[in-house]
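Trying the structure run again after the queue cleared.
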Amino acid sequence: RFAWMFWSHKVLRWFTPHLLVCALLASLLLAPRVPAYAVLAALQMGIYLLGAALYPLRDSGRLPRVARLLVFFLALNWAFCVAFVRYLGGNYRGSWRRTTRAAAS
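Done. Tokens:
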């Protein structure tokens, strides 16, 4: 049980952006031969475009819960992609920086 929790929560989360890109590329490559893959590629691209369109509204309080979850999922995976590219480029520090705190009242 512990191994499943570790793999599903930690390791697979790191690879989700890569798996999403692989799924999109596979659908695009198979789309000319199998129409179902064209539909899957169009759906995946549509979801990405919808998430990008809804992203500016994420803090407005006007998005339904499902839309907020979609935006969160896509933003999280985008952050993993950016971190991976930074890591490959050597521009990745494995430490946190302190943020300024407001004075206690």
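The chain has a mean pLDDT of 87. Worth checking whether this holds up in the mutant runs.
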